Amino acid sequence: MSEQTFTKAQLAEYDGIQKPEKYVAIDGVVYDVSAAGAWSGPNYHGNVAGQDLTEAIQKSPHKLVVLTRLPVIGKYIG
After folding, report:
1. Tens-digit pLDDT string for the chain (78 aa)
2. Cβ(34)–Cβ(16) under 8 Å?
3. Residue 64 to residue 20: CA distance in whole angstroms
């Protein structure tokens, strides 16, 4: 199976509204945050699914540690 790629417009569809899944991009990798309890609401600390959150994760106290628990969906090509 080939790895799925996402443009900015394609990723934006996975905001939990347009499509039920919630995906975010970080450092060029797309992660599924749909099942993450912290993402059960419309946003997480003001961050919205369907976006590139690389800058936000770098400023967060947990940094990239939380990503190890999330399923990888594909690559973000912007």
Report:
1. 458 999 999 999 999 999 999 999 999 999 999 988 887 877 777 789 999 999 887 776 566 667 788 899 999 998
2. yes
3. 24
Token pair 């106290």 is found at 61
Residue with the two structure tokens 């919205």: 48
Distance CA 41, CA 5 (A): 26
Structure tokens at 78: 């912007």
All domains of the chain in start order, with CATH: 4-76 (3.10.120.10)
Angstrom distance (rounded) from CA 18 to CA 71: 20
The residue to which tokens 């347009």 are assigned? 18
The structure tokens listed for 10 are 């394609």
Q: What is the DSSP string of 8-23?
A: HHHHHT-BSSSSS-BE
